[in-house]
Amino acid sequence: MNILIIPAFFQTKRRPTLGSFFWEQALALKAAGHNVTILYCDTYSVKCIGEYVQYSEKNAENIQGISIYRKRVFCPLKHGIEGHKGAFAKAVLELYDEYIADNKKTDVIHAHCCVWAGYAAMRLSEKTKIPYVITEHATLFRLHKDKIKNKNKECIAAAFGKAAKVICVSRAFGRLIGEYTKNIGIIGNVVDCGRFHPLQEHENARKNSVCTFLTVCYMGEEEQLYKKGLDILLEAWADIAVKHQNVKLIIGGGGKAAKKVVEWINKYNISNSTELIGALDRNEVAARMQQCDCFVLPSRYETFGVVYIEAMACGKPVIAAKNGGPDDFVKDFNGILVNPEDKDGLADAIGKMINIWEKSDKTYQPEKISAFVRENFSSEAIAQKLEELYSGLVGNCREGSC
């Protein structure tokens, strides 16, 4: 099958992990035997003119068997989600005409995020009559929905409404998108189980007497810290540090807002039991997850929460908040769910994990936890779910009902 992917944002040389969910899904489809092509428009506003001038991405390249075509567009009026949907869609259509139309047959278009990849997919589908699906990931629809202008709401509703299927990464998120369409399916994100997996038993032997908790998040803006609940975590950790001497909280993630985390650490006097380790690449994240005893991140909201799944793929139990995404996959055998912003409940959950660790309790079995991830979120599992969806859409089009 020939699959055309349109991501709303995508990896760059400056930010190589941007859009990693989209890329890993593309790789999963390629590994399953499909031909995968990516069309992407990089849009730049006036405030990003320096990056625009220094732009050095290739217009066309092939990475791991996937063709990637890019176009950069300068959008002086771009502001937030406003002002560039037309430019984004126009660039995607131009890329299609330039690289795809006369060279490659396309069976299905798969957009990631309605704003504005889904809108571009709708415009391309109107031109080509190829069916399109949208996988929605954006927290926009939970955190900033009141900021969407009415004219853009109309475009979003049209893109969702005309899609052959809208995919959401969790049931809670699907309920939010339900105001736009009822044609919704649930398919989670891909986890690279080749990278994220438990260490062998001899590698996983306890090397010291410290119970280690790990949290990882991007710290670009202070808003991100609050979204991920870092303030609640550090406040709860202050209670833990008073009661336990053999514990450590390792905090991974880069960005200018890391200085706020340092302020909180100093405020709660927990510098002796916390460690900031800065930005991590994907391999470093996996290594840290393999070495920790528990992953904890009490986000106020997650559409999915792939970082929890990655930790579970490494065989580690997780502590998460009941915030939407993790509600679907955190079970008694792989972790603990607490209420959002519940500092005392979070401290209790961390205390339970410490107690289990101290007793060498077998409540959380690494192989059982990782097997759950392989069965539900591995590249093979997600590719199979997408194949079934695509096949149904292509079959309907051949019968003239798309």
Strand order of the largest sheet: 3-4-2-1-5-6-7-8
Under CATH at level 1, the class of the largest domain stands as: Alpha Beta
CATH architecture group name of the largest domain: 3-Layer(aba) Sandwich
Distance between the termini: 17 Å
Radius of gyration over alpha carbons?
22 Å
In the residues, how many domains can be counted? 2
Q: Structural class of the helix and strand makeup? A: alpha/beta
CATH topology descriptor of the largest domain: Rossmann fold
Helix content: 40-55%
- At the fourth CATH level, what is the homologous superfamily of the largest domain? Glycogen Phosphorylase B
- Helix count, DSSP H or I runs of 4 or more residues: 15
Share of residues in strands: 15-25%
Number of strands: 14
Write the layout of secondary structure elements.
Layout (H helix, E strand, L loop, with lengths): L1 E6 L12 H12 L3 E10 L4 H5 L6 E4 L2 E9 L10 H16 L7 E5 L1 H15 L3 E5 L3 H4 L6 H13 L2 E4 L2 H7 L6 E3 L24 E6 L5 H6 L2 H14 L3 E6 L5 H10 L6 E5 L3 H10 L2 E4 L8 H8 L4 E4 L13 E4 L4 H16 L7 H12 L1 H20 L4
Parallel strand pairs: 1-2, 1-5, 2-4, 5-6, 6-7, 7-8, 9-10, 9-12, 10-11, 12-13, 13-14
Antiparallel strand pairs: 3-4
Explain the overall architecture.
By secondary structure, this protein is of the alpha/beta class. It has two domains: 2-190 and 378-398, Rossmann fold (3-Layer(aba) Sandwich), CATH 3.40.50; 211-376, Glycogen Phosphorylase B (Rossmann fold, 3-Layer(aba) Sandwich). It is 42% helix and 19% strand. The protein contains 15 helices and 14 strands. The chain has helices at 20-31, 49-53, 85-100, 114-128, 140-143, 150-162, 171-177, 222-227, 230-243, 258-267, 282-291, 306-313, 343-358, 366-377, 379-398, and strands spanning 2-7, 35-44, 60-63, 66-74, 108-112, 132-136, 165-168, 184-186, 211-216, 247-252, 274-278, 294-297, 318-321, 335-338. Strands 3-4-2-1-5-6-7-8 form an eight-stranded mixed β-sheet, with helices on both faces. Strands 11-10-9-12-13-14 form a six-stranded parallel β-sheet, sandwiched between helices. It is globular, with a radius of gyration of 22 Å. The two termini are 17 Å apart. The model has no long low-confidence stretch (mean pLDDT 91).
